[in-house]
């Protein structure tokens, strides 16, 4: 727990290095701002040390943890969704926000009107109105039974107090997003619950220790890499590329899982009875 929290805090600082340098204390002493991958990596290193010290089969330990890690991630994203902690996607310009804080169908003209009507907010977030990320994606007809918020949500009363004031609301948490976004935390909850079930069904079918954990790494990497395509996150600048930190780590997780899986298949560790 200690190493997981420490790693999550350190990786959040690295991910927001520029803002951290401006106000270090607001990051170091704030309970907010925890990056999952930082917690995963640092806690994994500590667990590896613990397992080695106490002569616990490392691959068995990893396999035992793999389904729970996926389930925990899915549950954690529920908290992101209901609290509105900023872990959301890019704007869906096929929808707009009504004056009563309700998401309604819209179009690109409504989106542009909102951009200019709330230009101060958008410029503070993205430096330029031309840099505001968005996709026009209306609800498909075959998914008409789903509520609109599944495709676009304005996160009223979000804990970050991000957006514009809610009419008639006084006190804390009285903001909403002026344009609805893709609720990526909800998507990750659904996808990771499915991936948890896959790992759970595979847990007794894979006889080589460590292969279940390798599959977890690959599935986790694939899920996070693709959700980043519609998620708002800080981008890095490296060799002309502009990936997010999560894209880099998720790609490394997938490659690591693939290498571990191939390595264990070719040279399996001894199976304990």
Protein described:
- With 273 residues, the protein is mostly helical.
- The chain has three domains: 1-56, no CATH class; 57-87 and 184-266, no CATH class; 91-182, no CATH class.
- It has helices at 2-15, 17-22, 24-28, 36-53, 58-83, 108-117, 119-126, 184-202, 211-227, 245-266, and strands at 91-92, 95-97, 103-105, 134-135, 164-165, 175-176.
- A hairpin with a 5-residue loop joins strand 2 (95-97) and strand 3.
- The longest helix has 26 residues, at 58-83.
- It starts with a helix and ends in a 7-residue tail after the last helix.
- The model has no long low-confidence stretch (mean pLDDT 90).
**Any idea how many domains?**
3
What is the 3D shape? Answer: globular
Helix/strand/pairing category: mainly alpha
Major β-sheet annotation: 2 strands, parallel
- Using only CA atoms, what is the Rg? 21 Å
Number of strands: 6
β-strand percent reads: 5-15%
């Amino acid at each position: 727990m200690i190493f997981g929290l420490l790693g999550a805090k350190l990786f959040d600082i690295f991910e927001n290095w520029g803002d951290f340098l401006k106000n270090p204390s607001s990051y170091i002493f704030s309970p907010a701002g925890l990056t999952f991958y930082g917690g995963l990596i640092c806690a994994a290193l500590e667990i590896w040390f613990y397992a080695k010290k106490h002569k616990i089969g490392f691959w068995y330990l990893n396999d035992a943890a793999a389904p729970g890690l996926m389930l925990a991630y899915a549950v954690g994203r529920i908290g992101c969704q209901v609290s509105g902690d900023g872990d959301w996607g890019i704007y869906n310009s096929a929808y707009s926000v009504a004056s009563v804080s309700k998401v309604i169908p819209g179009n690109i003209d409504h989106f542009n009107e909102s951009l200019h009507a709330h230009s101060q907010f958008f410029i503070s977030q993205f430096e330029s109105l031309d840099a505001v990320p968005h996709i026009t994606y209306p609800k498909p007809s075959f998914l008409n039974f789903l509520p609109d918020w599944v495709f676009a949500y304005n996160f009223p009363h979000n804990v970050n107090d991000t957006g514009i004031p809610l009419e008639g609301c006084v006190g804390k948490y009285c903001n909403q997003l002026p344009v609805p976004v893709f609720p990526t935390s909800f998507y990750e909850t659904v996808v990771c619950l499915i991936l948890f079930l896959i790992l759970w069904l595979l847990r007794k079918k894979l006889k080589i220790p460590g292969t279940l954990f390798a599959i977890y790494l690959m599935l986790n990497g694939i899920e996070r890499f693709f959700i980043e395509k519609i998620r708002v996150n800080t981008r890095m600048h490296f060799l002309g590329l502009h990936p997010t930190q999560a894209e880099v780590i998720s790609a490394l997780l997938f490659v690591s899982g693939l290498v571990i899986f191939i390595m264990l298949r070719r040279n399996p560790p001894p199976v304990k009875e």
